[in-house]
Write a structure and sequence with these properties.
Alpha-Beta Plaits; alpha+beta; HMA_dom_sf; single chain; 4-stranded antiparallel beta sheet
Length: 65
């Protein structure tokens, strides 16, 4: 499980956009997003840099926890 701090998430659209972006790169990825804590947990075979890149492509600032 990889956990990231993601700034700029505020609604269901954000959750959907990030989830879809990650699952486009790894259809088997399990994504859990906590809007209040501004965290994204990802269980995936993707390396951390690929996860960060996918989230950044959606317009969010990302840092590893």
């Amino acid at each position: 499980m990889q956990t990231f701090n993601v700034e700029g998430m505020s609604c269901g659209h954000c959750v959907k956009a990030i989830t879809q972006a990650l699952q486009a790169k790894d259809p088997a990825a399990h994504v859990r997003i906590d809007l209040g804590a501004k965290t994204v947990e990802v269980q995936s075979s993707l390396p951390a840099n690929a996860v960060v890149e996918a989230i950044q492509e959606e317009g969010y600032q990302v840092s590893a926890v």
